[in-house]
Specification:
The complex is a heterotrimer of chains A (530), B (304) and C (312).
Chain A lengths: L1 H16 L8 E6 L15 H10 L4 E4 L2 E4 L2 E7 L4 E6 L12 H11 L18 H6 L9 E5 L2 E5 L7 H4 L7 H7 L16 E7 L3 E6 L13 E6 L3 H9 L5 E4 L2 H8 L4 E16 L9 H9 L3 H9 L15 E2 L2 E2 H4 L3 H8 L3 H12 L9 E7 L4 H15 L3 E7 L1 H9 L5 E7 L5 H5 L15 H12 L3 H18 L3 E14 L2 E2 L15 E2 L2
Parallel strand pairs in A: 1-10, 15-16, 15-17
Antiparallel strand pairs in A: 2-3, 4-5, 5-7, 6-7, 8-9, 9-10, 11-18, 12-17, 12-18, 13-14, 19-20
Helix pairs in contact in A: 9-13, 12-18, 17-18
Chain B lengths: L14 H4 L9 H11 L1 H24 L29 H37 L1 H16 L2 H11 L5 H28 L2 H9 L3 H36 L12 H10 L6 H28 L6
Helix pairs in contact in B: 2-11, 3-4, 3-11, 4-5, 4-7, 4-9, 4-10, 5-7, 7-9, 9-10, 9-11, 10-11
Chain C lengths: L1 H28 L4 H5 L5 H11 L5 H15 L13 H36 L4 H15 L2 H15 L11 H31 L2 H9 L3 H13 L1 H16 L2 H7 L4 H10 L3 H29 L12
Helix pairs in contact in C: 1-14, 5-6, 5-8, 5-11, 6-8, 7-8, 7-12, 8-10, 8-11, 11-14, 12-13, 13-14
The chains are: A alpha+beta (530), B mainly alpha (304), C mainly alpha (312).
Chain lengths: 530, 304, 312
């Protein structure tokens, strides 16, 4: 009897001590930029806008803890033969009490494919029947492969096998009467937006602060513990650091070793490493008379001392990259990196002397085999680290290959316009992958080339297209691995430099946080402990 | 004692003697130079400036480090080994600060001089001639000042293929002269209707001579203050220009760039921000003190 | 006087037209458009649809006429491209207001204190007050505003938590930004005032006034201030105009919703309507400030004629 009583008392104490909620359930997070709009299908929707929509809207599916979880949808079925998805919706309500219907989801698709809307990420839904043709103006929107037979059912028909369909397609509802009544102004302010997510938008001081408060109409409202989320718009590191220290800000992501050291040593904060799907790389212009030669490109890639670079620039917070995909990119939790060694490492073993390789390349081109006569132009867009980056590449290529490096700095818009037009020799930038592994590979496809490296390969195209259509995860990874080797090592179309790792810093009394880099959970499960 | 008439003889009036000049003949400029030499503070300022220039030329040799050499001693505090400490890539900061001084001083001083000369001439002509000419010249000033500066420099960075000191000076001066022009115009407007100017014109003195001998000396004080403000302004603007690619890039550096880089790590390594800022402040101080001395020396009313 | 003002207003519209035209064409000559600046991965079809939507596929001179037509027939400066749905005119009005709230106070503080310090400095030339004030002025001008801002933000919100770190809404949010922004004007007006007062104080008529028996304070008030304030006024005009377009640096650091960040972001992102709107707005205010300064010239110093020298 005493033992039972003791056990019960212990249990009671644990229940009371652990997990007691604080009186004020309010957190403050930040975004570096002001959201352009909250209209999910606007031409210029940006990352900040999408971020707010995770809280203020309810997509059919969310990526929670790395898994694709039905959210606005209760369940779905997939017919392999007709490539048709049928979604059954939950009972959810807009903030004004009106029910969210399948019509609302259909309406947002219809706006997405409307040519006069000029949605930027349209290629994400080219997999839907007739989407591409309607967007190009050759078919009518009534022929779109998305229908809503009744209030709670949405049917989507695809024109090809699309393994990452549920992750890639934006299923966000928009209510027709509301959107039409606001016209062009929809999504630009509190009064012009209607929420249906775990939170509703209640305040928006542009370029300064957004406020989200708990939405009582939400279908899962009883499990949402936070009352208020403040989103500060701040792009200055010192400001954000000061804000974290004095309690104004509760969450931060930083890569600076000094800030990280401070927060790791402080118990008031929890720190978690986030391995981003981002690759920083050097871009070669395959049409340039010097860089058209493969050996030249390979030599330049091998001459980059990646370990030295990340130590000097980032105190090795960022890991060196020898491949296209970081450890964050894979299929169903299996990273490509787990299955395939990084191709440029293999290339380095096969070619221990980059300078000799470079000279071979020069001879193949019929140029003077003296590297010191070569001057390359290194294009870069301006940022806080630009000057140091230039100094490092000048040192690395200067010492290992003996060539001269001249920098060409410009601001982002000029830089990117020049790159896409092929108006550069060597450039550097970063590109983020997505939860769908095919995204990064599709950038190099000959017919839709988004990566301005101007180096093409039929073999690569064939491998990637086959992998895109397959449903066998192992087969896909193997195919992507082969394709990666072609682009990164055999052709050295680009030279990978480093992956990005952020330290997420969160006040330690805040729980329920989803640290996954692809998460679209928003702040639904977050709460503040006492 | 009693004075008797026989004790004195009448000497008379020597007309020639009363015309004798008591001091050696000197012009306005020579007199100014003489007075400047006597001003201790101004001389001290000039010496400080010369010292900064010398350090900028020979800084690397003095401390023994090359300003581009990277090392594994990153972010070190000032010590006997590295007098100003090191930066993020392990480069000696003393060498970098004075290598940067070469560029910043050159851009700051040259830019300020060009702007001031051009602006002063422009402003004095505008106010002196007056009427329609003044109206047109001022409208041009308004137009030049109103076009968004960022767009102008992006345009310039496209047109100039190499970003040397020349293109930077052009980008800085293309708008900078406007303020000087308006300041000088304001001063000249005050003077142009003074009695002595009207007298000089009536006497038939050429306009150019009037501007040279009366207008410019009397606007000198404003011109000098403006000049001393242009210098740090241009030093910082040059760092802004690197954003569009018109500024200095590695392996060269400047105080503006060092200060911007220092800002990022200010809360952890304050010395990286402190030393470039100190150099800018000291340069500004010497120019200000020297400028004050110059102003006193050139002030016609203080002539004795 | 009235005729003069009318003439200047006419000139203002002329200059506004010229500046708008030049800015419009320059803007379209630099590489990049709103789409390239924002979206990295771009299907060809999106470009086609997007350009059609915003009329960017038409030749530049045709876009120019469309723009002018918009102003004269509908009185609108258009809609921002980067921030769809936000009217340029409304945005400018609202956020220029916020920027000016801190900017105007900073400039006025700098002006008033600067004038006083400059006068004192000149009167006590080369003595201790002069030297001290000169040092303050030098620090004010050679410490870059981004340094002051981050430093003050850390010192006064973290080390000694007296003010909110960032944001907008209460008077407390305005104090640090205003403080940071007032150093530069303070230094400027101190130095210019000192130099002008020195010029004036050695004039014969000042000695005459003192000889007549006026007290020194009276002399300063009646004669010195009026005659020496001109250069400071010349600078004050544009300073006030600048206030409305905000300081990009201060607004980023303190997360202030002002026009400064809109303006610079607009150029970087090639948001054409916003760029032109801000340029027109700034030009208008700038020219107005110059007009006011020119009129003040005449009121303060009777020697100055409105049309400059008239002895020809």
């Amino acid at each position: 009897m005493k033992k039972v009583l003791a056990a019960v008392l212990c249990l009671a104490m644990l229940l009371i001590a652990g997990g007691a909620l604080a009186a004020t359930q309010e957190i403050t997070v930040f975004r570096a930029n002001e959201p352009t709009t909250l209209d999910r299908v606007a031409a210029t929707i940006d990352e900040a806008g999408k971020f707010i929509l995770w809280d203020a809207s309810e997509p059919l599916f969310r990526i929670i803890d790395g898994a694709t979880t039905p959210s606005g949808a209760e369940s779905y079925t997939y017919d392999e033969d007709t490539l048709t998805y049928t979604f059954t919706l939950r009972d959810n309500y807009w903030e004004d009490g009106v029910k969210v219907t399948a019509q609302d989801y259909l309406y947002s698709f219809q706006r997405m494919v409307d040519p006069s809307n000029a949605y930027g990420y349209i290629s994400d839904i080219y997999c839907i029947v007739n989407a591409e043709e309607i967007y190009a103006g050759t078919k009518d929107v009534a022929e779109l492969g998305v229908t809503a037979p009744d209030e709670k059912t949405l049917v989507v028909q695809l024109n090809a096998v699309t393994p990452a369909f549920l992750e890639v397609v934006p299923f966000y509802p928009q209510r027709q009467d509301f959107v039409e009544s606001k016209g062009d102004a929809y999504g630009n302010d509190v009064a012009n937006f209607l929420s249906c997510g775990p939170f509703k938008l209640t305040g928006w001081e542009h370029n300064s602060l957004l406020t989200l408060e708990k939405n009582d109409q939400y279908w899962d409202a009883e499990n949402v513990k936070l009352e208020k989320v403040n989103v500060l718009i701040s792009n200055d590191n010192n400001a954000r650091y000061s804000a974290m220290l004095n309690g104004t800000l509760d969450y931060w992501e930083t890569n600076d070793p000094d800030y990280i050291a401070h927060f790791e040593a402080d118990d008031a904060f929890t720190t978690v490493d986030q391995y981003l799907p981002t690759l920083t790389f050097v871009l070669f212009n395959g049409q340039d008379e010097l860089l058209q030669n493969t050996k030249i490109r390979q030599a330049l890639s091998l001459a980059i001392n990646r370990e030295f670079f990340v130590e000097a620039m980032y105190k090795s917070v960022y890991p060196a990259a020898y491949g296209l995909t970081s450890s964050a990119i894979g299929i169903n939790g299996v990273a490509l990196r787990d299955v395939t060694p990084e191709p440029v490492r293999v290339l380095a073993e096969e070619n221990p002397d980059p300078r000799a390789l470079f000279i071979e390349g020069l001879e193949e081109l019929g140029l003077d085999p003296d590297p010191s006569k070569i001057t390359v132009t290194f294009s870069i867009s301006s940022s806080a680290t630009t000057d140091d980056t230039i100094a490092l590449y000048q040192a690395m290529w200067g010492e290992t290959l003996g060539i001269n490096v001249v920098a060409d700095v410009s601001e982002w818009a000029s830089f990117w316009t020049d790159c896409k037009a092929g108006d550069f020799q060597i450039g550097t930038l970063a590109w983020s992958g997505e939860v769908d592994i095919s995204f990064l590979f599709n950038l190099f496809l000959t017919d839709s080339a988004q990566m301005p490296c101007f180096t093409y390969s039929d073999e690569f195209d064939a491998l990637v297209k086959k992998a895109n259509q397959s449903t066998d995860a192992d087969e896909r990874l193997a195919l992507y691995g082969e394709a990666e080797k072609i682009m990164m090592a055999d052709l050295a179309a680009i030279a990978p430099v480093c992956y990005r790792v952020n330290k997420a810093v969160l006040r330690s009394n805040i729980k329920g946080w989803d640290y996954n880099v692809f998460s679209t959970a928003g702040h639904r499960y977050v709460y503040v402990e006492d | 004692m009693e004075y008797q008439e026989e004790m004195f003889t009448i000497v008379g009036c020597d007309e020639a003697a009363s015309e004798a000049i008591a001091r050696p003949q000197t012009t306005y400029w020579r007199d100014a130079w003489r007075r400047l030499k006597q001003n201790k503070v101004a001389i001290f300022a000039m010496i400080m400036l010369i010292l900064i220039i010398l350090l900028s030329l020979f800084g690397s040799q003095i401390c023994g480090y090359d300003h581009t050499k990277m090392s594994m001693d990153m972010n070190q505090r000032p010590s006997l080994k590295h007098w100003f400490g090191t930066d993020k890539l392990g480069r000696d900061l003393f060498a970098r600060v004075f290598a940067g001084g070469r560029i910043s001083l050159m851009i700051g001083i040259l830019g300020a001089l060009i702007t001031t000369v051009f602006g002063s001439v422009y402003g004095s002509i505008s106010a002196f001639v007056g009427g329609k000419v003044d109206a047109i010249m001022m409208r041009i000033v308004e137009i030049v000042s109103s076009i968004p500066y960022l767009i102008v420099v992006i345009m310039l960075s496209l047109m100039m293929n190499d970003s040397g000191v020349g293109s930077i000076l052009l980008a800085l001066c293309i708008v900078g002269w406007c303020q000087t022009a308006r300041l000088v115009r304001g001063q000249v407007l005050q003077l142009v209707n003074s009695d002595y100017v009207i007298a000089a014109r009536t006497l038939g003195v050429s306009n150019w001579k009037i501007i040279r001998r009366h207008m410019i000396p009397n606007t000198m004080s404003v011109i000098i203050v403006n000049l001393t403000f242009r210098i740090p302004s241009y030093i910082f603007s040059e760092a802004f220009l690197s954003f569009v690619g018109l500024g200095i890039s590695s392996p060269n550096t400047s105080w503006g760039m060092l200060a911007s880089a220092g800002k990022e790590t200010m809360l952890f390594y304050p010395y990286q921000m402190f030393f470039p800022a100190l150099m800018i402040a000291l340069t500004m101080l010497s120019f200000t003190l020297f400028g004050d001395g110059l102003r006193d020396a050139l002030d016609p009313k203080l002539r004795r | 006087m009235v005729k003069y003002i009318l003439k200047r207003v006419f000139y203002m519209f002329l200059v506004l037209f010229i500046v708008t035209t030049i800015t419009f064409f320059l803007m379209h000559m630099i590489p990049g458009d709103p789409l390239t600046a924002l979206v990295q991965k771009l299907p060809e079809q999106t470009k086609i649809n997007y350009y059609a939507k915003y009329g960017l596929d038409k030749p530049v001179y045709e876009q120019y006429f469309v723009f002018l037509k918009g102003i004269f027939t509908e009185g609108t400066l258009g809609e921002s491209i980067r921030f769809p749905g936000r009217q340029v005119l409304d945005t400018i009005q609202k956020y220029a207001g916020y920027s000016s709230e801190i900017g105007l106070v900073a400039v006025l503080i700098g002006f008033i204190i600067g004038i006083v310090l400059g006068t004192v400095s000149a009167i006590k030339q080369n003595k201790l007050p002069d030297k001290l004030i000169s040092i303050i002025a030098i620090l004010g001008i050679s410490l870059p505003v981004f340094l002051l801002a981050s430093l003050f933000q850390y010192l006064f919100t973290v080390k000694w938590p007296l003010f909110p770190t960032l944001g907008w809404g209460t008077p407390a949010h305005k104090i640090l930004p205003i403080l940071c922004m007032s150093f530069s004007p303070l230094a400027t007006y101190t130095r210019y005032m000192r130099s002008s007062v020195l010029d004036v104080i050695n004039q014969d008529y000042i000695t005459m006034a003192e000889a007549k028996g006026m007290s020194f304070a009276q002399v300063v008030r009646r004669h010195v201030l009026r005659n020496s304030i001109l250069p400071s006024l010349t600078i004050l005009g544009p300073n006030i105009a600048d206030v409305f377009t905000g300081s990009f640096v201060i607004e980023s650091i303190f997360a202030i919703p002002g026009l400064g960040s809109y303006y610079i972001t607009a150029v970087n992102d090639r948001d054409f309507p916003m760029i032109i709107g801000c340029a027109m707005f700034y030009t208008g205010i700038y020219i107005l400030s110059l007009l006011v300064v020119d009129i003040l010239y005449v009121i303060i110093d009777p020697r100055i004629r409105l049309t400059g020298s008239n002895s020809k």
